[in-house]
Design the sequence.
């Protein structure tokens, strides 16, 4: 069970963002993307199923680093 932190629509489609408050360094981001990527991809899949509309981007926003990272699709 989870909660989508942010969803917004642009002309090309929906973007789903999950905020993360982990205190990570730049060098530790790849591990966290691997860890949390499936979660935000799952949110994107659920959003598409519920709305019938395409999610064109999923990402993670790391609040400690003030950094947004696009999560690659499977």
Sequence:
């Amino acid at each position: 069970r989870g909660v989508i932190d942010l969803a917004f629509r642009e002309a090309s489609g929906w973007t789903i963002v999950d905020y993360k408050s982990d205190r990570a360094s730049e060098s530790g981001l790849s591990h966290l993307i691997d860890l949390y990527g499936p979660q935000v991809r799952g949110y994107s899949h659920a959003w598409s199923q519920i709305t019938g509309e395409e999610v064109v981007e999923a990402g993670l926003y790391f609040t400690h680093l003030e950094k947004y990272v696009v999560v690659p699709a499977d």
